[in-house]
Amino acid sequence: MNKGGRPKGRANNITREVRQLLKEFSRNNFSKIQELFDQVAEDDPAKALDLWLRCVAFVTPKPAPEVITPEDDDRITEIEISIVPAKDGDESIEDDTP
After folding, report:
1. How far apart are the C-alpha atoms of 6 and 75, rounded to whole Å?
2. Which listed residue, of 11, 30, 40, 70, carries a Cα 20 to 30 Å from 20's Cα?
3. Does residue 87 form part of some domain?
4. pLDDT tens string for the chain (98 positions)?
5. Residue 23: which H helix or E strand, with range?
6. What is the distance between the alpha carbons of residues 90 and 84, in angstroms, rounded to a whole number?
């Protein structure tokens, strides 16, 4: 019995087998998939673009989020807020305070 379990990052056997089957299916049916995609693109280009983007998401790496804390970022040193009264006739700003 393996008490350590599967090494970190290694897919389990079922996942590995399913990925292999999908890869083979895709390779064996590429021309048919391309024909279907072309039909969708002809009828609805926006839908074809959506399908393409959804497929690309499976094969392109996702960027890691960048976390910036105020202590790490020296680009902003000061923020100034000015309150300017509205011009006469400018009704875009209404004061609802009682």
Report:
1. 45
2. 40
3. no
4. 556 777 777 778 888 898 899 889 989 999 999 999 999 999 999 999 999 999 888 888 888 887 777 666 667 677 888 888 877 765 555 555 55
5. helix 13-28
6. 12
Domain range enclosing 29 = 13-59
Q: Would 35 be classed as within a structural domain?
A: yes
The amino acid at residue 11 is: A
The label of the residue with tokens 């875009």 reads 92
User: What gap in Å lies between CA 20 and CA 60, rounded to an integer?
Assistant: 18
Residue 3 included in any domain = no
Overall domain count for the chain:
1
